[in-house]
Amino acid sequence: MNDRFLRACGREPVDCTPVWFMRQAGRSSPSYRAVRRERGVLEIAKIPAIAAEVTRQPVGELGVDAAILFCDLLIPLEAMGVAVRIDDGVGPRIDPPIRTGEDVDRLRPLDPERSLPFVRETIARLRAKLDVPLIGFAGAPFTLASYLIEGGASRDLEATKRFMRERRADWTRLMDLLADGMAAFLRFQADAGAQALQLFDSWAGALGPGDYVERVQPHTRKVFRGIRETGVPTIHFGTGTAGFLDAFREAGGDVIGVDWRIALDRAWVAIGEDAGIQGNLDPAALLGPRDDWMPAARDVLERANGRPGHVFNLGHGVLASTPQDHLRGLVELVHETSRR
């Protein structure tokens, strides 16, 4: 197996910098779009043969050093009794949203073994065929809470922030329930064969440092404590976190994902040299010509300066209009430029 990704997560020497992409199995891929013409995202995730094939496609098409399980952040919420749908052109919708303590009480504790057997089967299929490590994942408590309260994606998270401030006891109960559930879901994936685990806190950057430390960090830390027993590398990803990267790092994770809003070398100083770092090319850079994104990618590598523990990635997911040959070219550039 090509294990340079796992060795980089452990800050061990590698022959070249590993690279993978969030949403590498997504709308930028013609093969994925062909599958999506027939089935919805949630349906694909629940059919192990199709989910496994979609997960594997980018490994062969792009030459990446890791695969990430095809699933959706909201799949575990369905198993907790939430009505979830994903509308084309709109995104995830939750109806009704959580707005009261009684709404929180209606959520069920997550039992992934009983409710999500298709995830175990998908992972088993992948481990039988992949020659790169498989990453499992879950949404962080704050990001999932924001979907539950807003009823979908939101730019300002107004309802979430109001709930967090006005209903503190209900907020704590909700976040604890989500933390316990996501820790159980991640342990379940590791037990099924996932070789690394990533926690997505995609909306954490909507908070100020004080709110993050007081109202979010303890619950995220609870997730990482709850999966420590798995022994697999953990990645903590967020966007817009440059203003509190030290606190984000303290919440947990062997590797900290950073976006493009902060230079990689500055981010590494903020999180400390004893952690790995993942990132951090702007996904929009790949929409331009090679002469534009190649220097930007080299700049990321130069700022990493060959230090152990760097996993090359974008600062967020691959944009739908990204040319596949740009992604393939970026993988080749990272490998060739960083060859030891």
Q: What topology emerges from the helices and strands here?
A:
Elements: H1 4-9, H2 30-36, H3 41-45, H4 48-62, E1 67-68, H5 75-79, E2 84-87, E3 91-94, H6 101-105, H7 112-115, H8 117-129, E4 134-139, H9 141-150, H10 158-166, H11 168-192, E5 196-201, H12 209-227, E6 234-238, H13 245-251, E7 255-257, H14 264-271, E8 276-281, H15 290-304, E9 310-314, H16 324-337
Parallel strand pairs: 1-4, 4-5, 5-6, 6-7, 7-8, 8-9
Antiparallel strand pairs: 2-3
Helix pairs in contact: 4-8, 9-10, 9-11, 10-11, 11-12, 12-13, 15-16
Kindly describe this structure.
With 340 residues, this protein is an alpha/beta fold. The protein has a single domain (25-275), classed as Alpha-Beta Barrel (TIM Barrel). It is built from 16 helices and 9 strands. The chain has helices spanning 4-9, 30-36, 41-45, 48-62, 75-79, 101-105, 112-115, 117-129, 141-150, 158-166, 168-192, 209-227, 245-251, 264-271, 290-304, 324-337, and strands spanning 67-68, 84-87, 91-94, 134-139, 196-201, 234-238, 255-257, 276-281, 310-314. A hairpin with a 3-residue loop joins strand 2 and strand 3 (91-94). The longest helix has 25 residues, at 168-192. It starts with a helix and ends with a helix.
